[in-house]
Design goal:
The protein is built from 3 helices and no strands. With about 100 residues, the chain is mainly alpha-helical.
Length: about 100
């Protein structure tokens, strides 16, 4: 079992003997796309919530600029780690296993 981190299309490209650099780029792009869409939604909804709460002044809301920057840095680390896990699974998988 290749696991959920390995997309079916990546496995098919591996079976068709695609270049390893293309597969690596696809895995990193997939990981960072999902990570930054989630980051954008999270920061956006937090800012929207803060904007609505500031109008009511209950509870007090304050988000310094360091919070989104630190969160983005953590997201980058998580994306790199998840992409590395996917690449490790691709490297260990034999192309013939795909068609079993």
């Amino acid at each position: 079992d290749a696991g959920p981190a390995l997309a079916f299309a990546d496995v098919l490209l591996l079976a068709q003997q695609s270049d390893a650099a293309i597969l690596a780029a696809m895995v990193f792009l997939q990981s960072f796309s999902v990570g930054f869409v989630g980051f954008g939604l999270g920061v956006g909804f937090t800012a929207l919530f803060g904007y609505k709460v500031l109008k009511l002044e209950q509870p007090p809301f304050f988000m310094p600029w360091q919070v989104p920057v630190f969160t983005a840095a953590v997201i980058v680390l998580i994306c790199c780690f998840s992409a590395a896990l996917g690449l490790r699974k691709i490297a260990k998988l034999e192309p013939a296993v795909v068609f079993k």
